[in-house]
């Protein structure tokens, strides 16, 4: 009997799509939820051993104080409010190349930022992206093969949605992995086929591991549909060599699998001995025509940090025209990605050129941000490597460190008694005692018997020492407490 005035929802968690219940996303999991609660407790005056939360769990630069690129925001301001273009003071408020860019975009986008665009993205913006790819790689790009998206995450969803038919379809994913991949595979009913990066070789990719896992999957009646490569790596920060890339492309050709290249950190290179080279460039240099490559990029990373704009693209190379027609249909179901994100993506791929009025400021902002990120990467790596029982590979690229913690048996036993993974146990106590938010390695999957955590390098430079000091004090106390016999 239902009491009058009381209502019971007909929907319960156990009646939801089981694939939704299976999907997990550790980057915004239990520890981050607890961090939000602590932040609210601090706001009402509750006493803690620290005065603020330091979010080191996610690549969200502007949340942590990084300033946006001026050129981007100026063009977006004019595109969002076209009457400014007709103001007699527009030339005082904005550089002429900003005004020209906004006029050119708006003239080619009927209805401006408030209207739907072509399902793949506005034609002029896809042309801008294509020119940027051509300038980067030295090979032409076809705007009709470029699909704008609400960040690279939606590109991943689109690729997995198209590829996965049932649980017999498997996708090779690097471990440690970015949990977007395990989550999307869970949602679409596919199987994650892990290939383990070699921590002892600076998180290198072992080609034999790809072959072994593929043969194992075939023996189990599975079909390997795609290989995911994240370069530079997330969460591991390594940068692939071109020889490694060639081997990967040959593997995809020989096995007939799609290469899903997550290349969103291509501007974030810190090692003087490494550089980013796109898979498309390597593929063209090899003269390969029979590899299907989905190359993904985003405005959320690099030195732009425009995460909330949700802009990105996928370039589809080597795909059959009938497959492209189906991908177009999928894009059409979503109508289009947000137009502000599309504009920002075009600006990322076509920044001011030398000699243009905005170039000097853009170049200054770019070099200062990237230099600061490199300094932060080096300082954090040094500090982590000096902690008792911690090993950490050099941060060659991306925005993260993935140190390994050699936890004492006492900590592992205490975690077991608490019903938690040992690195979760460590990260939760780290949060409660220091306010530092990290992600346990168990959230990224990891080699059995090893424990890690992932931290970003994005806390502002002036606060980096604060993170290091809090972490060192906590870690020393943790190791002493649980290392006692």
TrEMBL record:
The record's annotation in SUPFAM superfamilies points to: PLP-dependent transferases
Names of the cofactor(s): pyridoxal 5'-phosphate
> What Gene3D superfamilies does the record point to?
1.10.287.1970, Aspartate Aminotransferase, domain 1 (3.90.1150.10), Type I PLP-dependent aspartate aminotransferase-like (Major domain) (3.40.640.10)
Q: Which GO terms describe its molecular function?
A: alanine-glyoxylate transaminase activity; glycine:2-oxoglutarate aminotransferase activity; L-alanine:2-oxoglutarate aminotransferase activity; pyridoxal phosphate binding
| Superkingdom of the organism of origin | Eukaryota
| Signal peptide (from-to) | none
Q: Could you tell me what this protein is called?
A: Aminotransferase class I/classII large domain-containing protein
Q: Organism, per UniProt?
A: Elliptochloris bilobata
